[in-house]
User: Fold this.
Amino acid sequence: MKLRLGGVAGAVLTAGAFVLYTAFAHHMSSEPQAQSWAILLALLPLSLLVLGIARQQLHNTRMFLLAAGAYLTVLAAAWPLLHHELRWVYLVQNLAFYLTLGLFFGRTLLAGRQPLCTGFACMLHPVMHPQLEHYTRRVTQAWTAYFCLMALVSLLLFWLAPPPIWSWFANILTLPLVGLMFALEYLVRIRVLPPEDHLGLTSAFRAYRMAMERNRTAAASSRESSQQG
Assistant:
């Protein structure tokens, strides 16, 4: 019970922090100039994403430090611009969010790979019949197209629309639109698949948690094997 309450409290705090940051981003996206503290706060999520990916991909410590140094050099060179156009930071963050997820889904559609949604379905369904396999491939394609389309719309609004309009799309509507996509996918699912395949809107989140747990277990086993070797 304590662990469950701790998980709920953590989720509430995370959601609260996200709402506060979203409100801050929406406000600062419309400001013509920004203070240094606002720039640092705006850069925090993007920096964590970039450095996290670099740490994951560059196993050599020296290469990682070189990549981190190059990233900080780019930020230092762009600092004067960011004082006048902080919304560029939020544009890059928004595009990085959509394009990273688009790549995350899309790369699993390559020949010889299992579509991401098919892999999630395998964890929740004891038997994967051909209709379900075909459907989950289509869902993976749909999510890939969705994230790429949202990146394109964000870029077009950034260039063509007033800053408050783009900010509403990028900062306020991002998660509601993702939730709408989940709801639409579920409506399609209950129309084209038999009742035994209707697992509810939260099934994707349960499958994702199971996949992450399996990856952590595999990574821990790999580290133990390498240490023993």
User: Anything to note?
Assistant: The chain has two domains: 32-85, 87-221. The first helix runs from residue 2 to 29. Residues 32-85 form one domain.
